[in-house]
Amino acid sequence: MSKPRLRFAPSPTGSPHVGNIRTAVFNYLYCRHTGGTFILRIEDTDRERYVEGSLEEIMLSLRWMGMDWDEGPEVGGDYGPYFQSQRLDIYARYAEELIERGRAYRCYCTKERLEELRKYQESNKLPLGYDRRCRDLSPEDRARLERENPEPVIRFAMKLEGTTEFDDVVRGHLVFDNALQDDFVIIKSDGYPTYNFANVIDDHLMEITHVIRGEEFISSTPKHVQMYEAFGWETPVWVSVPLILDEQRRKLSKRSDTQTRFVSYIEDGYLPEAMLNFLATMGWSSGEDKKIYTREELIEQFTLEGISTSAAVFDLARLNDLQGEHVRLLSVDDLANRLVPFLQAANYVGNPPTASEMDYLKRIVPLIQPRLVLLKDAPDMTLYFYRDDFDYEEKGARKYLVKDTTPGLLEAVAEKLESLQQWFCETIELAVREAGASLGMEGGQVIHPVRVAVTGRTFGPGLFELMDVLGKDRCTARLRRAAAWARDRLGTVEPQTSS
Ligand code: GLU
């Protein structure tokens, strides 16, 4: 059997949605699992809905996820062009062929007539749809109507009786009553094809073997199946992927609280590994009770049988959990490199960063890696590694700095540290504890004020590890700054007496 050929066929009608990218993920994984070909085809025939910039966002999102296409825009291929707007002559030719086969016809009905028809059907509670007036015109009527409307559309002549049936890998055998189907437009009066037509022509010409797409297209599939039959072409394997619901279990949409615009996840600093893991397991399961999948594992395990029949819920907490886990799986060097753009945006490192900036960053990374989730949070988490003029957290300062004993303690610690010959975690810890002990203080009584003094915060990585990275001069200067600040505040604020 020849290798599968799959396509992701977005319309550039807006910023890609997480649901669109999930569809791309399933196509991509199945391609890589089977050694098939992954094609990107741009369905840009709806000129009114075209949104500037959306094509770029689609390509950026796929590439960011590491889902490079084998054929399509910018890479080419033997089945191009891959933009439907560049294939209009092809659609025109096939529409003519359908007319010759008696399975399509020119329709001269004006907008006004169709509008009247709809109103009539609505007020008489009749099924809506085209009444097929132009389907069997006499040559005289046709000539007359053509004079009235020289820009007809072309409609597909659906079968009037019987059923249209097909098998969907996810949904099973589906049966549609032909009497309920409409003679839909395949070529609009401007010469552009509709989605339903161009999609089928291209899937056939591009030799697509599997159509994996959202289940909202199931109701269009009978139209597609009848077109394949009319041409005498073999249908692809249909795979309808269930919907994605938001956390309120409504269809995911722009109205949901959930952020639907895919590129916003890129901007927030999610990892492509985490996003791939998340999207792949939203509506698909390997059958194992397993949370973390690498790209290689997904490619190895992805099968169509694992696609669920029920809707998947977009669970942000699950995404964040996966994100944290994938952050922890990265090597220090890898995470450091990925943080660079976020730290550049905060002006912490240059563009490009110097070798010494990278060395410093690689010493910081192990300290933040255990708690980091979104990469965009890194500038805030690392602020005190890059800035000396930070403010003290209000609550922490009140509790630990504005105390009678604090200025003396911080000065004693600073002095002890200044005398150190060797600066590493163990020597720092010993010195801090000894300075505290000399004043009769121990444990948290010492650690907390020192932490607030050197980081401005009550919470963070191991104190001695971060002091090691900050270096002696910065630490002692900060201890003295905090001591002076505390003394100043003690003059004006009621001191805290409890320890
Ligand atoms: N252009 C359609 C979309 O944007 C493609 C649907 C399909 O895959 O057939 O969703």
User: How would you name the oligomeric state of the polypeptide chains in this document?
Assistant: single chain
Stretches with pLDDT under 50, minimum 5 residues: none
CATH architecture of the largest domain: 3-Layer(aba) Sandwich
The secondary structure category is mainly alpha
User: Strand order, biggest sheet?
Assistant: 3-4-7
Query: What is the tally of beta strands?
Result: 11
Mean pLDDT: 95
Describe it for me?
It is a single chain. This protein is mainly α and 499 residues long. 47% of the residues lie in helices and 9% in strands. The chain has helices at residues 18-34, 54-64, 88-100, 111-123, 139-148, 195-205, 221-231, 262-267, 272-280, 295-301, 316-329, 332-345, 355-368, 378-381, 383-386, 394-401, 406-418, 425-438, 444-455, 463-470, 472-492, and strands at residues 5-8, 37-40, 104-107, 153-156, 163-168, 172-177, 185-187, 210-214, 237-241, 244-245, 312-313. Strand 5 (163-168) and strand 6 (172-177) form a beta hairpin. The longest helix is centred in the C-terminal third of the chain and has 21 residues, at 472-492. The protein binds glutamic acid. Glutamic acid binds at residues 9-11, 43, 195, 199, 213, 217. Glutamic acid (GLU) binds at residues 9-11, 43, 195, 199, 213, 217.
